Amino acid sequence: MSESNQKEEEVQPAMIPPRAIEKTPMFTAMNAARYQRQTLIREIESTQPKLLCYIAGNKALVDRIDTLGFVDMLHNVTPGEPIDLMLHTPGGDVDAAEKLIGLVRSAAGAEGQLRVIVPDYAKSAGTLMALGANTIVMSESSELGPIDPQVSSKDGNGSDVVYSVLTYLNAYEFAGKSLREAPDDLAARITFEKFDPTIVRKFQSVRDRAKSLAEKLLRRQGKNFSKITSELMDINKYPSHGQMVGWETAKEMDLTVEYMSSNDPVWRRYWALYCHLRLAIEPEQRIFESNYVSLIV
Predict the structure, then answer these.
(1) N or C terminus of the chain with fewer C-beta within 10 Å?
(2) Which Gene Ontology terms of cellular component type are present (predicted)?
């Protein structure tokens, strides 16, 4: 061997395997809460169907912007796969609610299984979304509510005010009845004329839209859709938008409810996950989370 070849062999560096890419300590610390939640989701999914979570703060109404989060959560779901949707919302836009539950329903398939899990509450438009499931999973802490859409409109000072549609229309109808019974009553006339005809027509349209959607979702399940819808929209039975419809009442209405005791090990995991999700958001925010997606809007 020549001297030059020997030197070349001597100076060749040893092969060092490439270093594996790993999360930095700071990134891991900043995302620790998310990792904990998603680990819990995977633990739940080891015995339960695919779990998607939509948890909204008490000031975050159901809105079309939520489409972004739902599409992301459904991105890796196998068509026809059974789906569980954990739902917590104060209510909101009826049309948006129809779109969102329609997206999940489509992913589960026409003959597929979709459960809506209500750990705390799903009000108004949230109740409508729950009606789109094959089964509503509830416990002692769970509540649905009357179907009473909320609509944002301007008050006399130009400020945004959220109105209860059924309460507003009920007051309008009462004022109209009072005026018909006493047409010469100046106070009754002044009260009636405070109602804006444009808002009245708008709210009547929203009410009819909510009724139509509820009946459509219930008809799909072979339920007495007219009776159940009328009961959920009965302003005399449910004068308050926030009134509770618990699991027993929901069953009495003939909704398909799967009751889980608060001591059930599966329910305790649902509740633990819900607590983590609620703490992750502000009142104006909502979180969309699965075992692979985590979005806060």
Answers:
(1) N
(2) membrane
